[in-house]
Amino acid sequence: MKGNKEKRPGITVMAYSRDKFLSKKAETLRDAIFPGNYKVAWVNVEGPLPVEELKSELGFPDAIVRSLAKGSGRPRVMVFGDYLFLLLHQVYEIESGLKREKIGIFLRGNLLVTVQEVSGDVFGPVRESIRQGEGLFRERGADYLLFALLEAIVENYVPIIERISSKMEELGTRILSKGDESVLHRIHGIRGEILFMKRTVFPLLEAFRKLGFEGSRFFSEESLPLIRELHDHVLEVLEILESQGEMANSLVELYYSTISMKTNDIIRILTVVSTIFIPLTFITGIYGMNFRYMPELYWRYGYPAVLIVMLAIAIGMLVYFKRKGWI
């Protein structure tokens, strides 16, 4: 039945040399990995994992298949006799926060294969540069293409980190103007995003170190320094994330300090009001005792005189507090 037809992965191939270029869709992995006489062939597989084809056509061992099939896994580099395999994560911004997508990259000779869980990636600028013949892609081999893909993944982290910084600056301003609980919830959300990015980026340090040393034979003299520079780039990204984590903690402290200051202002105002009423309450208490022989009770101007005295005391105390800077 048509409804039971197995969904096939989307397979595209981009092959190129100095003066030749090919871009097409393929039905099977076998058709994609033999595009003809080109210097580099890049095959991209999206969607359901074609396990049997990966094993038969590329010789993927069970360790690689398990890494791709797992729901989650740390970035890693596997170095074999004549090929490399890398497991990395792309990060995307979605409405509810950040999303991580796994991607596998296979390099053997002039063939590079990327395996993705779903369609859509961060490699658009790389594809366009190859298509237009820009940069060094047509001059270099598949090792340079691998570097470009890894750089695209790392560079994609930068705008996400910049937007996190922008959100923290906005929250810092909002805390000083209106420190309600919604601000605190947003700060905790940002701290979660920073932790998410740290967990994604940190394993790349070891992965790229291993790639630059154990996998050095797969790269030309021109490409190997670029691969090792990726390690430094990742380190810079982690330093930025570390400073952002400290900034997020500072925002939490600023929030509670602001709340404490507002609470102190309220307590100070209430204390001033209570202090003013102490002598007023004392006066009303004396004249509220209703003793029989209290001459002021029978004085014609006794009531307004007491009110004037009480008003003068209140005004005098307010002026005094104002000069002291207490209100």
Question: Main traits of this protein?
Answer:
7-stranded mixed β-sheet; 2 domains; alpha+beta; rod-shaped; 16% strand; Methane Monooxygenase Hydroxylase, Chain G, domain 1; single chain; 327 residues; 7 strands; Beta Polymerase, domain 2
Describe the protein in words:
- This protein is an alpha+beta fold.
- Helix content is 57%, strand content 16%.
- A seven-stranded mixed β-sheet has the order 2-1-3-7-6-5-4, sandwiched between helices.
- α5 (142-177) packs antiparallel against α6.
Secondary structure topology:
Layout: E1 10-16, E2 21-26, H1 29-32, E3 40-46, H2 51-58, H3 62-69, E4 76-79, E5 84-94, E6 97-108, E7 111-116, H4 124-132, H5 142-177, H6 181-213, H7 224-287, H8 302-324
Parallel strand pairs: 3-7
Antiparallel strand pairs: 1-2, 1-3, 4-5, 5-6, 6-7
Helix pairs in contact: 5-6, 5-7, 6-7, 7-8
